Amino acid sequence: MLVSNFIDGEVSRPSGPAHYATEKGIKSLKRTVFCYSAKRISLIAVVCFAAFTLSVAQKPAPETDAKQPAKDAKTTDAKAGAKLPYVLTVKTRPILNISLKAEKAKVSDVTQELSKKLKVPIFLGIQRQNELLTVEFSELTLEPALQLLSPLVFVDYEIDTGSGTPPKPLGIFLYDADQAEPPTTAVVNGSNQSMLIEGNTEDGVAPESDEAKKKLEEQPLRIVYENKLLSVKAKKQPLALVLLKIGEEIGVPVDIQNQNLAEIDTEISKLPVEDVVRQLSPHIRLYQRADLTRAEKRALRIVLAEPPRVAQ
Fold first, then answer.
1. Helix axes 273-280, 239-250, angle to 10 degrees
2. DSSP codes of every residue in 100-149
């Protein structure tokens, strides 16, 4: 038991072994309290650091990082597009027209893009493959535009006499100046061909007497092809026979798919083949080649097609 002595108004603390033990216990208690406080503070610090680390780990990445690749891709595409040495535009309304601005662009690159937009195969001459093109034109129709791309140009067309639409290009040939004309079957071919068999020893012989000329004029079917113009005179003649006779006269194969033997009466004088077949029937398909360099056209094939079936 600790006893304090009051001497002259002051507190007298005991000395000796008992007092030393008491102070030692107090110091030990202080150290214990200090260690406990230190450990508690350390524990709180560890808990706070762990909570902060978890919060940082769970924090979502900034949106700009996720969108950055898309922006980079767009930038790359824009740069790639800006590097093209040409700008090509193809419009179909009101009519087919082409615009092109090229500065030392490869003809092969330009025609590849043009073929894709037209959906028509384009064939290049050997010299055209690596030739550089510098040209600028706006809203030209197909043929004038093609003439600015090559010194020798051929276009093969399909003409449907019953559609009322312009001729449909099937193949375009941009050839070298000294290159031969492409084969007639390059893009226009067919496995069927009808034959006309007739016997007349006087065919190809010009009539000499007036009686012979009159007899010739009175023939029910007469086909004349001169100076690239066709004349047809038919009196109650089957359309198939008229077309076969035209094919024989102009030197092209004829495919008769329509077996209707309806007869026609017509008289057409000195017109291009295209205009003649348009007048004969709406069920004819004429395949024709245009030589744009020489401003010439010639037939490649004639087909008398089956009329479209009417849905019941």
1. 170
2. EEEEEEEHHHHHHHHHHHHT--EEE-TTTSS-EEEEEEEEE-HHHHHHTT
Residue 205: what pLDDT? 54
Q: Which two tokens stand for residue 285?
A: 């398909």
What pLDDT sits at residue 98?
97
Instruction: Give the integer Cα–Cα distance in Å for 100 and 137.
Output: 6
CATH, range 86-175: 3.55.50.30
CATH topology of domain 210-304: Phage tail protein beta-alpha-beta fold (3.55.50)
pLDDT in tens, 220-279: 999 999 999 999 999 999 999 999 999 999 999 999 998 777 889 999 999 999 999 999
3-state secondary structure of 212: helix
Q: Angle CA(213)–CA(214)–CA(216) in degrees, nearest 5?
A: 65
Give the pLDDT score at 206.
56
List all residues 6 or more positions away from 287 whose beta carbon is below 8 Å from its beta carbon: 156, 157, 158, 159, 170, 188, 299, 300, 301, 302, 303
What per-residue confidence (pLDDT) applies to 213? 61
Which parts of the chain have pLDDT scores under 70?
Answer: 1-82, 191-217, 308-312
Cβ neighbors of 294 (< 8 A, separation 6 or more) are none
Examine domains 86-175 and 210-304 and report if their fold is the same.
yes
Give me the residue spans of the domains in the chain.
86-175, 210-304
